[in-house]
Amino acid sequence: MERKFSRYLLFVISVFIIALWVDHYQGKWLNNYITHWLKNVVNFFEESDDNPQSKSSGSASNKAAGNTHDRPALIKPNIQPEYVNELHNTTCSNAVITDKQMAERTNKQKNNLIFSWEDDNGVTHFSDTLYGSNGKSQVHEQYRIELKPFELSIVSKKTLPINFKRDITVGIKKIYEIISSYIDKKYIKPVNVNLQFSHSKRAYQAIQHKKAPGLGASQGFYSGKHNLAMVWYKNAEQAKQTALHESAHVINSGLFGSTPRWLNEGLAEYFETVKIMGLAAKISPLDWKNDASVKRISLSTLLNGTNQHWSGKNQSIMYSASHSFVHFLMSTPKGKKLIKNIFQHLAQTRCATSNIKQFFKKYPRGIKGLERDWHNWMQKGKYRTQSF
């Protein structure tokens, strides 16, 4: 019996050591079902150590989320992100590309011009030198890299799947494009999205403790001070949604500065499941009709919610309600007019005092009419997938 127990103990220790080794090299050259299984074993022990209460609760979702306020399955049927302790920036961030940085990019661009020119025999040539000063040859076209008011940097110590990187790159650019389409060009700011992935919980927590020391359990955060959107990569689908969510915060911060909590979180929730199909982006609604807690919340509570509302027992309701309200505004004629006025005002008054309540008063029948229309929209449940 004692010999059998020793063999069993040796087997468990061996598996754990292999799991630690695989966790370190995961994504570099081992990528198979055994690897994923062993990595899940490591994550289980890591999360159990950080969340002892989850052992007694018997809830798998608590172990994954690391908090006692899990978001209902209605909100996240397949994935349970940990936004419970998400940062909310109330000051201007460094997400905007400065005039100095734009000037540096312009100078670099001028040094990389390519010209096409045609010689006397009608043959077209390409060169980085300007020809044709003798009058017989002409400069027909000037090619250059177009400076766009959006930059995206993706950093990961481990190789990201090609499709994954493509999806988040296109998705983030589409988010910027959609929001910017509601704003006059003269108020659109160039935004720099700095996105970083960590494939280990220990490495992620080390960065979180350094960049956001007051933040609790999370799987993603955005620090306006450092202009860093950080994501803990657990699996491709979870990491993609978290990356889109946090990048939406970066874009909000860059275009609007300090953004009202309901709008900041609502837009992040709204865009995190965006699907790119060719040149179009599709955003699907959730089943708010069957979420009684969201339908009962007053618009005043959502618009004026305190930190206690967003992090207390009503946290999941606030997130779901903000998502629902933003989807309502983005998908109805009167809502689109309202959201455009809000976007325009926030962009125009970026980093300055803003007053968006004035636009709620201008809504047909005021804020009471807005609340009634929103609740009726949820109750009818005739939501449509939006295409951009």
From TrEMBL:
Which residues belong to any copy of the Peptidase MA-like domain? 235-379
Disordered, as annotated region: 49-73
Coiled-coil ranges (or none): none
Is Transcription regulation a UniProt keyword of this protein? Answer: no
Which organism's genome codes for this protein?
Parashewanella spongiae
Spell out the protein name for this chain: DUF1570 domain-containing protein
Question: Gene3D superfamilies under this entry?
Answer: 1.10.390.20
Transmembrane portions of the chain: 5-22
Biased-composition ranges, Low complexity, are 54-67
Matching InterPro entries: Peptidase_MA-like_dom (IPR039568)
Q: Can you tell which superkingdom this protein's organism belongs to?
A: Bacteria
Keywords (A to Z) from UniProt? Membrane, Transmembrane, Transmembrane helix
